[in-house]
Design goal:
- With 234 residues, the chain is α/β, with parallel strands linked by helices.
- The protein folds into 2 domains: 129 residues, ATPase, nucleotide binding domain (Nucleotidyltransferase, domain 5, 2-Layer Sandwich); 77 residues, 2-Layer Sandwich (Dna Ligase, domain 1), CATH 3.30.1490.
- Strands 4-3-2-6-13 form a 5-stranded mixed sheet, with helices on both faces. Strands 7, 9, 10, 12 and 14 form a 5-stranded antiparallel sheet that branches.
- Helix 6 links the parallel strand 15 and strand 16.
- Helix 1 crosses helix 3.
- The longest helix is centred in the first third of the chain and has 19 residues.
- The radius of gyration is 20 Å and the shape is elongated.
Length: 234
């Protein structure tokens, strides 16, 4: 079998249920979708059930695809995830706002957040507001001159111990954890029940929300001008 290049694999994990879904990249048609209800009243993630579920289905998927699964995108729903909100300001700026300015503020905010969330991992950085001389904007206001500029930022975080347990289980099947996405965050974009849930997840991972700051690998190459300033190293 060859490595899987033409499909995206998604793993939804919550206290109530687990879903494993494989979709073609070209048209996002589902080629495999398996749901396992754990306990509709449960409030805690069951890692033993996750391992059991994967053991029952990974080989089936690989046989169906004729490909190995090398990585999955995890969508997680858990009360252990939490938001940290932070505002960071640049006073007496008196210049035009540019991407380099925003990048500097974001890096400072991420540094402050990391100093607060010991043993937790940032999975989303969302810019809620851009505030220019006391005027609030929801989109990036480039090349606007101002004296004071600030950002309202939300960090969505997950305990490192949860990530470690899931990575350990996936490693058993030679699978890498590719992206971690908050289920609660995805729910903001589910206005139509007929929409493919995992297609929405894929779009979010690919940068659908312009106010989400992507956490990229330090070895990433060939990124464009905008990404050069607006992506932060994980």
């Amino acid at each position: 079998m060859r490595d899987n290049l033409n499909f995206e694999v998604f793993l939804f994990f919550s206290p109530e249920k687990i879903i494993l879904s494989v979709n073609r990249k070209t048209d996002f048609v589902s080629v495999f979708n398996k749901e396992f209800v754990i306990n509709e009243k449960s409030t805690h993630l069951d890692f033993e059930k996750l391992n059991f579920f994967l053991n029952e289905n990974i080989f089936k998927i690989e046989k169906t695809l004729g490909n190995f699964i090398k990585k999955v995108n995890l969508i997680i729903k858990s009360s252990d995830l939490f938001n940290l909100q932070l505002s960071i300001k640049k006073n007496d700026y008196n210049k035009k706002i540019n991407l380099k300015t925003i990048s500097s503020l974001l890096k400072d905010a991420k540094y402050q957040c990391n100093n607060t969330i010991h043993k937790n991992k940032i999975i989303h950085i969302l810019i809620d507001n851009y505030i220019i001389d006391n005027h609030i904007y929801t989109e990036l206001p480039l090349n606007q001159k101002c004296e004071n500029f600030s950002l309202d930022i939300s960090f969505i975080c997950i305990p490192e111990v949860i990530v470690g347990k899931i990575e350990g289980i996936l490693k058993t099947y030679q699978i890498m954890l590719n992206n971690i996405v908050s289920s609660k965050y995805i729910e903001r974009y589910l206005n139509d029940e007929s929409v493919n849930y995992f297609h929405i997840v894929s779009k979010i991972i690919d940068g659908h929300n312009k106010n989400e700051v992507k956490l990229t690998n330090k070895t990433s190459k060939n990124i464009g001008f905008f990404e050069k300033f607006f992506n932060l190293f994980g």
